[in-house]
Write a structure and sequence with these properties.
The protein has 87 residues and is an all-alpha fold. Helix content is 92%, strand content 0%. α2 runs antiparallel to α3.
Length: 87
Amino acid sequence: MFASAFPAADDFIGKVTDVIINPLIYLMFGVAFVVFMWGVTEYVLHLDDEDARKKGARHMLWGVIGFAIMVSAYGIVTLIGTTANSL
């Protein structure tokens, strides 16, 4: 009922999601992946140095946290988009 009353708003929300929000989420996935891989590299290359291993482990942890945040953000955007389209 409401979706037919505001077709321009649905188009605008869809385009903002497709052009701005989704590419930002994908970019942040890439950043989280690079941080995680940097941590793995630091951890593996410095097995004999305790401080460098801790630093690598911290980078891996922050990479995983970044993944979790981006999966949550993508889920929220999808939920909002689905809800807005069903109205």
